[in-house]
Amino acid sequence: MKRILSGMRPSGRLHLGNYWGALERWVRLQDSGEYECFYMVADWHALTTGYDDTKEFRQNAEDMVLDWLSAGLDPQKSVLFQQSSVMEHAELSLLFSMITPLGWLERIPTYKEQLRELSEREITTHGFLGYPVLQAADILIYKAEAVPVGEDQLSHVEFTQDVAKRFNHLYGDVFPEPKPLLSATPKVPGLDSRKMSKSYGNTIEISESVESISKKISRMFTDPQKKRADDKGHPDGCVVYAFHKIYNKEAAVREQECREGRIGCVSCKKNLSELLLAAMAPMQKRRAELMKDKGCVRAVLDEGNRKARDVARQTMAEVRRNMGLA
Ligand code: TRP
Ligand code: SF4
Description:
The protein is mainly alpha-helical. The protein folds into two domains: 2-188 and 294-323, HUPs (Rossmann fold, 3-Layer(aba) Sandwich), CATH 3.40.50; 208-289, Orthogonal Bundle (Tyrosyl-Transfer RNA Synthetase), CATH 1.10.240.10. It is 55% helix and 8% strand. The chain has helices at residues 16-32, 43-50, 57-71, 88-99, 102-106, 109-117, 126-129, 131-140, 154-171, 210-218, 239-247, 251-259, 265-291, 296-323; strands at 2-8, 35-41, 78-82, 146-148, 179-181. The strands form two sheets. The chain has a three-stranded parallel beta sheet with strand order 1-2-3. It has a two-stranded parallel ribbon with strand order 4-5. Bound molecules: tryptophan (TRP) and iron/sulfur cluster (SF4).
């Protein structure tokens, strides 16, 4: 069976943007039975931009994995593990750094973008420049053949292919050249219609209570020109409608009703609340089950770390042998 690997930086509780951007797909790939799935908490990667504040690191990782499990990732089917528990990633990353020309790293678009965007932080570090080298090690140490990622990570997967090629050329065939598994994901706006993001405070979290979700939906940004139920509205810029498109099979009906002034925003939101809560109910149920056993996330990661380490060790033995190392 083909193996895939993907990772997420531990950002704590996940929101619906994270869910539809990646997690939902991870669950589908797992359940398709087509792949052996390795899913990783990329905590070393989080250090590249956030090394100065690590107090909540462990908590964030555990909160995130609890959301993974709530969303349907199943440790019986997938290997769920933590990067910092598999030291072999660091060794492979070091060895890759020896054969990676600096120019390859400097020309990666996300590097320059992030330097600009995060200009208030001191991230002109070795670790930050080397981010893709570590990511290549994450992927190649499991000889993953495919990497489910968003568009933003495409350059990192292509970089990984280049590293694999160069290694194989220098030391003999060890690594496959992994393909990116891209897919269109629905656009999830935040409550205020900007991108859903923790830093904007406009999120709905996977773990949020029913009351809190309903309240947030009632506060969602709609068409400001539609003041009364029978005013004709414009669904396009409306956050409620964007959510209908994701959660409502009959979104087209809502759209027509809105345009023709046959529905008011209050009922439109009420309808969305029902659909969203129904869609989230299975996750909330699983979460409630999981919460009964406080140690369950740790146990899942311990088991996953062991499985990941087994594979990583085998690859490293091969790498060292091919490179003439001990
Ligand atoms: N860089 C990825 C992100 O920020 C996280 C990540 C780390 C990753 N290692 C990976 C993704 C390996 C795919 C494969 O989203
Ligand atoms: Fe948005 Fe619905 Fe109001 Fe139209 S009726 S503006 S889609 S909330």
